[in-house]
Structures are given as structure tokens and as C-alpha cells.
Amino acid sequence: MQFGRVVGSVVSTQKEASLEGLKFLILEILSAKNEPTGSHVVAIDAVGAGVEETVLFATGSSARQTKATDKRPADAVIMAIIDSWDLGGEIVFRKGE
């Protein structure tokens, strides 16, 4: 799993039939210290995330293991919206702060 921040969305009216009804979001990948890494990924949203939310996402074969992505051609999926995380006993991120 990796940390990410939702920075945008992708709209596609023509897509593989098994992807119908899914929301695609652009994530800025974050380090464990909540710093942007300079990389981005498009992920299927399985939890109802929105722009500016900080999330956990999975890539590769793990991305096809949620109810929303099972047996679908997914390479990245958002599977949690983060409320907070700490590193070495210090709070790195807290939602709303």
C-alpha cells in the first residue's frame, strides 16, 4: 500500500465494458513523511474519495482484490481514506489539519 493525495479526476465516456460506472482519480504519490514524491497515478476509486483527500492505494495484482475491481483490468485502486498516521511516534498527517 502507498500514500496518495487526490489531485484530479479522469472522465472517459468510452471504455472497456467492465469499467462502466467506476470513478477514476489522479493521485499525487506521497512519502511516509507526507511529502510529494513527484509521481502520479490514475486509480479506480473503491471508497468514494474526493479531491484533496489523502488515501491509501494499492497497485499491481493487489489492485484487483477489492469488490469494485474484482476481475477488472485495474492496476491501481483507492481502498481507504486516511484519518491520520504517525511515524516514529509523531503525527505526520491528521485529516482536517
Report on the architecture of this protein.
- By secondary structure, this protein is mainly β.
- The strands form two sheets. A five-stranded mixed β-barrel has the order 1-2-3-5-4. Strands 6-7 form a two-stranded antiparallel ribbon.
- The protein starts with a strand and ends with a strand.
Helix and strand arrangement:
Blueprint lengths: L1 E9 L13 E7 L5 E10 L8 E6 L16 E6 L2 E4 L2 E5 L3
Parallel strand pairs: 3-5
Antiparallel strand pairs: 1-2, 1-4, 2-3, 4-5, 6-7
Helix percent reads under 10%
Q: Oligomer, anyone?
A: single chain
Strand percentage lies at: over 45%
Radius of gyration: 14 Å
What's the CATH first level?
Mainly Beta
Average pLDDT over all residues: 93
CATH architecture: Beta Barrel
Brief rundown of the structure:
The chain is mostly beta strands.
Keywords, please?
97 residues; mainly beta; OB fold (Dihydrolipoamide Acetyltransferase, E2P); 5-stranded mixed beta barrel; two-stranded antiparallel sheet; 7 strands
